[in-house]
Write a structure and sequence with these properties.
The complex is a heterodimer of chains A (about 270) and B (about 290).
Chain A: H1 4-32, H2 36-41, H3 51-58, H4 64-95, H5 100-115, H6 119-131, H7 138-163, H8 166-174, H9 179-190, H10 192-208, H11 211-216, H12 224-230, H13 239-249, H14 251-273
Helix pairs in contact in A: 1-13, 3-13, 4-7, 4-9, 4-10, 5-7, 7-10, 7-14, 8-9, 10-14, 12-13
Chain B: H1 3-34, E1 37-42, E2 45-50, H2 54-58, H3 65-96, H4 101-113, H5 116-127, H6 133-140, H7 155-180, H8 184-192, H9 197-223, H10 229-234, H11 246-256, H12 260-292
Antiparallel strand pairs in B: 1-2
Helix pairs in contact in B: 1-12, 3-7, 3-9, 3-11, 4-7, 7-9, 9-12, 11-12
The chains are: A mainly alpha (about 270), B mainly alpha (about 290).
């Protein structure tokens, strides 16, 4: 970009696309603060009300607090499991002497599974959960989320693992560390940012998941997205609550994007390309 | 390397192998097994009746599956084309600016990081016939309100638009990473020779970016076979089969109609189709990398 006209055109183009991305969110935000009547009258100027949020959280049949708890519980536990499982496996596969074919098979398996539509597995998970009495339990959903997000976790952690200089590891071996000690005392601390990036992304994907959660949970264990979808399923679509619930469900992503944008960009790119 | 070290190595791989075997391999075997049975829920348990290949023979006659497969491919092609086009423009734009880069990146990340069900809700509200924003805006131009999701000629386009909006940011992210790793000396040389901005993009940037573009494109193409949430909330595959996609057909057959046998066949066939595409894609990527080096 050398001339200032080119610069200007560039900023105008980016702003145009930025508005296209932002406008839908602003639109749903206004809906959330409108009464049902104002929504239907298409009022541009309206008196903002918290009525929809009140109904969402405190009406007699409201389940939203429990839904949020379920989402957080499933998200946090499945994220922790993925961090442990993937960081251990990734260290052994990338940083220790191990038959190449084991590494190759595991990576290929994970990458192929990552690309397959998850719905093709959900049916079996449903049957398996049923047969061991885990349907409508958070455990089934946690296991399913661990499986669905495992590829992303492994790919992201591995790409950070490759960036750790080998000299540090070799120095630790010379000091008499075993592989287990190198993993626990050298690699994990050095992987801090990578683990953080992985945790943020994996948690968000668990929080966002609708399809798996819908098929493996019932009313008591449903997560936030499943709850939002029910607002459109009833006889009359409850637009106000749907918008309010949607707005609330954006909070984790907004907070994490704000504080961890760099990590998310690096993590998503690593998880997608490699 | 002592024996304790060896047992640690095995121990560290057990969890991932356990997850992969129990939760991906067993399910694969299970749906394959299911596909030869008629499965009915009776007296609190599933009753399996062996019917051989009947489910497979029935599949082509199924109202939803084949149209869904064709729609999925159509959706992938149209959506990915526009995602690449817009994605390249945006990535190029962001790579050229210095001020506000972080702001634009955060902003363009939002659609990937937010719950797809919310994206479905938003667009459902916007597409609304009576009080959606699109019809409201059209009314200023004296255009009759359009039935964005309810008319079979328009519903598919509406879904494509949502998919473009949802996944263009993903393309931006990957292309931006590619653009930022391009060698700078080529550009400096071109600048010395007095190359103009447009020529720089056409003769330097695009040729250098071709490997990244191809990899991103095929990757997006495969991933778009996963589309489900928006369809569920916006059209449920309708009207008719105009927005039916494979994920939704499988869901409907397996969970809504409780026809697990046929649902499993659909899964098996879908897995076969997507795996075939993956093999092609992995080959393309390998060739592109060879060509790029």
């Amino acid at each position: 970009m050398r001339t200032s006209t080119e610069k200007l055109i560039n900023y105008i183009m980016l702003s145009f696309f930025a508005i296209l991305v932002l406008a839908p969110f602003l639109w749903i935000a206004t809906i959330a603060f409108k009464t049902q009547i104002d929504i239907m009258m298409m009022k541009i100027i309206f008196k903002p009300t918290l009525f929809n949020f009140d109904k969402l959280f405190f009406s007699k049949e409201a389940t939203f607090f429990r839904d949020i708890f379920n989402s957080l519980f499933v998200g946090i536990i499945s994220t922790l499991i993925i961090l442990v499982v993937c960081s251990m496996a990734s260290f052994t596969m990338i940083r220790t002497k191990i038959s190449n074919w084991i590494t190759a098979v595991l990576f290929l398996w994970v990458i192929v599974f990552h690309m397959l539509p998850p719905i093709t597995f959900v049916g079996s998970w449903f049957q398996m959960a049923n047969s061991v009495g885990l349907f409508n339990s958070r455990i089934a959903l946690i296991l399913a989320h661990v499986t669905v997000n495992l590829p992303l976790g492994l790919l992201i952690i591995s790409s950070f693992m490759r960036d750790v200089p080998t000299e540090i590891q070799e120095a630790a071996y010379i000091d008499g560390c075993s592989n287990r000690q190198v993993y626990l005392k050298v690699m994990l601390p050095l992987l801090g940012p990578g683990l953080f990036a992985t945790a943020v992304i994996v948690f968000l994907f668990s929080w966002n998941d609708f399809m798996v959660a819908m098929n493996l949970t019932a009313k008591a264990t449903q997560t936030v997205p499943v709850s939002i979808a029910t607002f459109s399923q009833q006889y009359e679509v409850r637009y106000g609550e749907m918008a309010a619930g949607s707005l609330v469900s954006l909070v984790p992503a907004l907070i994490l994007t704000f504080f961890a944008q760099k990590y998310i960009v690096k993590g998503l790119t690593a998880g997608a390309v490699k | 390397m002592n024996t304790k070290d060896k047992s640690w190595k095995i121990l560290s791989l057990i969890p991932i192998i356990a997850v992969l075997v129990i939760l991906t391999l067993v399910p694969l075997v299970n749906i394959f097994y299911n596909s030869f049975f008629d499965i009915r829920w009776d007296d609190g348990k599933y009753n399996y009746t062996y019917i051989g290949l009947e489910n497979y023979i029935e599949l082509p006659n199924n109202k939803f599956y084949l149209p869904g497969l064709i729609n999925t491919i159509k959706l992938s092609i149209f959506a990915v084309f526009f995602q690449m086009l817009f994605g390249f423009l945006i990535a190029l734009g962001i790579s050229k600016i210095k001020r506000g880069k972080g702001f634009f990146i955060s902003l363009f990340l939002l659609p990937i990081l937010l719950p797809p069900i919310v994206i479905g809700s938003i667009w459902r509200l916007m597409y609304g016939f009576d009080f959606g924003i699109f019809n409201y805006l059209l009314s200023f131009f004296g255009v009759f309100p359009l039935d964005w999701l309810g008319s079979s000629s328009l519903a598919f386009t509406s879904i494509v638009i949502v998919d473009i909006w949802h996944w263009t940011p993903f393309v931006v992210l990957l292309l931006l990473a590619g653009l930022e790793s391009l060698p700078t000396d080529v550009y400096e040389a071109a600048r010395v020779d007095g190359t103009s901005g447009w020529n720089e993009i056409i003769y330097i940037t695009i040729p250098l970016m071709i490997p990244t573009i191809i990899v991103t494109m095929v990757f997006r193409f495969i991933l778009s076979f996963k589309v489900f949430d928006e369809i569920y909330l916006l059209t449920q595959g309708g009207p008719g089969t105009s927005t039916e996609v494979i994920s939704f057909s499988i869901y409907e057959t397996f969970f809504e109609s409780d026809n697990m046998g046929l649902g499993s066949v659909m899964s098996v066939v879908s897995l076969f189709v997507v795996s075939l595409l993956i093999i092609i894609v992995l080959n393309v990527i390998r060739r592109v990398n060879k060509y790029a080096n």
